[in-house]
User: Which sequence fits this backbone?
């Protein structure tokens, strides 16, 4: 079960240099299935960092959360495919047309250029947002309604899955079924601080709820011993996977 847990664990490379990212990729290569390259690292190092991680045998989740007009997002996502990333995301709030055009462009480009199609995800409502955050931007509907609504739109547009809080996994499963990929940040083991996350659960609860992948950054990066922290998270996930298997 540890190997199955490893395949589902994504480490957030939220660092400010290529050398730091490469050190993490080295240190955690046997503990995580994917390395997430986000806005900070990508802005600092550019696409080269994706290639460097891949050269070390690491799979990459390119987390740039594209949110723009349909043509721009579709073209940017096609470039992500050409980098050979395993996962890439857009914001569901960009709307159905944006998501549909992006899914179609990805499919067409990957077929024409014989590329492996990445898992195309839509971010629903950020895990750092609560109801008050939504109200401040004029959204009055409950988060518990917004998340499955956005997930369903993403599915209808041809995307493979969503990024959401582990708290909303059961709602998404009900709306979109078991084959839809659910990636959950906002994961906090008992030993870690909450930081700026608002809608969190433990790794075990995320697995039991039915999450496919767990994204974890600071609970590993800021731990006194990061390899020990990663091992503890993997063991917790493995126990939960065994529980789900038995149930
Ligand atoms: O798309 C994401 O990965 C993402 C979506 C979301 O709703 N919340 C969220 O925290 N993330 C990312 O997941 C990572 C979580 O990091 P930690 O809070 O340090 O575990 C960060 O890199 C965020 O950018």
Assistant:
């Amino acid at each position: 079960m540890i190997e199955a847990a490893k395949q589902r664990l994504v480490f957030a490379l939220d660092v400010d240099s290529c050398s730091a990212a490469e050190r993490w990729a080295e240190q955690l290569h046997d503990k995580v299935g994917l390395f997430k390259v986000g806005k900070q690292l990508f802005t600092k190092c550019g696409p080269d960092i994706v290639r460097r991680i891949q050269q070390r045998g690491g799979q990459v989740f390119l987390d740039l959360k594209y949110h723009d007009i349909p043509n721009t997002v579709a073209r940017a996502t096609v470039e992500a495919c050409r980098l050979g990333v395993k996962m890439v995301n857009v914001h569901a709030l960009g709307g159905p047309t944006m998501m549909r055009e992006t899914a179609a462009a990805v499919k067409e480009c990957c077929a024409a250029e014989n590329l492996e199609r990445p898992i195309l995800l839509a971010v629903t409502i950020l895990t750092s947002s609560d109801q008050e955050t939504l109200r401040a931007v004029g959204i009055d509907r409950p988060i518990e309604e917004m998340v499955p609504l956005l997930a369903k739109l993403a599915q209808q547009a041809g995307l493979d899955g969503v990024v959401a809080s582990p708290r909303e996994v059961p709602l998404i499963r009900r709306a979109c079924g078991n084959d839809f990929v659910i990636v959950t940040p906002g994961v906090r083991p008992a030993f870690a601080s909450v930081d700026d996350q608002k809608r969190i659960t433990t790794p075990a609860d995320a697995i039991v709820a039915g999450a496919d992948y767990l994204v974890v950054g600071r609970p590993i990066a800021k731990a006194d011993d990061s390899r020990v922290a990663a091992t503890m998270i993997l063991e917790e996930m493995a126990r939960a996977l065994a529980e789900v298997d038995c149930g």
User: Anything to note?
Assistant: The radius of gyration is 17 Å. The longest helix spans residues 226-246.
